[in-house]
Design brief:
By secondary structure, the protein is mostly helical. It has one domain. It is 80% helix and 0% strand. Helix 1 (2-24) packs across helix 6 (99-129), helix 3 runs antiparallel to helix 6 and helix 3 runs antiparallel to helix 9. The protein is globular and about 60 Å long.
Length: 266
C-alpha cells in the first residue's frame, strides 16, 4: 500500500509539473486557444456559406474533436521534447520512479488539458452559431471520447520514442504523424472520398471512429447501442495500442540510455 501511494504521488507530481509548465507559458497558451477557436470558427463558417446547418454542425464537430484528440496526442508525443527543451530529460529518466507512474501522470495531464481546451472551444462555437443540442446524446459522445483517448494514448507513447531516439528530428517526425492522421481520419469530410488504399489506412486510425461516433451522437442523437460497430474497434485499439506503447517506450528508453542520447540536447 505504501508503494502504491508513493507511485500515485509520483504520477500526481508529473501532472502538477506539467500544469506549472503551462502556467509559465500562459501567454502562448492563450494565443493557441484563440487560434484554435478562430480556426474552428473558420472551418464551421464554410457550412454557413453553403447554407447548410447540418454541414456547419459536422464541420464544427470535426474541428472541435480533432482539436481534443490531436491535443492529447501531441502532448503525449512531445513529452520527451518538452524534457529536452527544459533540460530535465536526463534527470527525469534517471529518477527513482517507475516509468509507468511517469507515463500515467503525463497521460492524465494530456486528457485533462485536452478536455479543458476543447470545452472552451466548443462553448465558444455553440454560443457563436447558436446550435441546438437538445436532441444530442452526450453520454454516447462521452463514451467515444473516453475510448478514443485510450487509443490515442497508446499511439502517442509510441510516437514519443521518436524525439527520444532521433534527437534532432524526432519532434518533426511526430508532427508528420499527426498531419497524416488529420488527412486520413475524416475530420472535415467523409473517408469515402479518399482513394481505397487511404480508406484502409483510415480504418486503422482511432480518430476515424471517434469522429463518426461523436457526429452520430451529437447531430442525430444516436444511442451508443446503435453504434457498436464503431465502439468495438476502439476497444480493440486501446487493448492493443496501450501495452504496445509501454513496450516500445521501454525499449527506446533502454536504447537511449545505452547510447547516451539522454544527455544530448540537439
Amino acid at each position: 500500500m505504501t508503494t502504491l501511494r508513493r507511485e500515485m504521488g509520483a504520477s500526481f507530481a508529473f501532472m502538477e509539473r506539467n500544469f506549472f509548465l503551462v502556467k509559465r507559458y500562459w501567454g502562448w497558451e492563450m494565443a493557441f486557444m484563440v487560434y484554435a477557436i478562430a480556426g474552428a470558427m473558420s472551418i464551421a463558417l464554410i457550412g454557413t456559406d453553403q447554407g447548410s446547418q447540418a454541414l456547419v454542425f459536422s464541420l464544427m464537430i470535426g474541428a472541435v474533436f480533432w482539436n481534443y484528440l490531436s491535443t492529447v496526442f501531441s502532448i503525449i508525443a512531445e513529452q520527451i521534447a518538452w524534457e529536452r527543451w527544459e533540460g530535465t530529460l536526463e534527470y527525469t529518466m534517471m529518477a527513482p520512479v517507475r516509468r509507468a507512474s511517469q507515463l500515467l501522470g503525463s497521460n492524465l495531464f494530456a486528457i485533462l488539458y485536452g478536455l479543458i481546451h476543447t470545452t472552451v472551444v466548443l462553448t465558444a462555437l455553440v454560443l457563436f452559431f447558436g446550435l441546438d443540442l437538445s436532441d444530442a446524446d452526450f453520454g454516447a459522445a462521452a463514451v467515444f471520447m473516453l475510448l478514443g483517448s485510450l487509443s490515442v494514448i497508446g499511439i502517442g507513447m509510441m510516437a514519443a520514442v521518436l524525439p527520444l531516439i532521433y534527437v534532432e528530428r524526432g519532434a518533426q517526425m511526430t508532427f508528420v504523424i499527426q498531419s497524416l492522421l488529420l488527412l486520413i481520419s475524416g475530420v472535415y469530410y467523409s473517408i469515402t472520398v479518399l482513394p481505397e488504399w487511404m480508406q484502409t489506412l483510415a480504418k486503422l486510425s482511432p480518430f476515424t471512429y471517434v469522429l463518426e461516433g461523436v457526429r452520430g451522437a451529437l447531430i442525430r442523437g444516436t444511442p451508443i447501442t446503435d453504434m457498436l460497430d464503431l465502439v468495438w474497434p476502439l476497444i480493440v485499439m486501446a487493448i492493443v495500442f496501450i501495452p504496445a506503447g509501454i513496450w516500445v517506450f521501454g525499449k527506446a528508453e533502454r536504447y537511449a540510455k545505452r547510447t547516451g542520447k539522454l544527455k544530448r540536447v540537439g
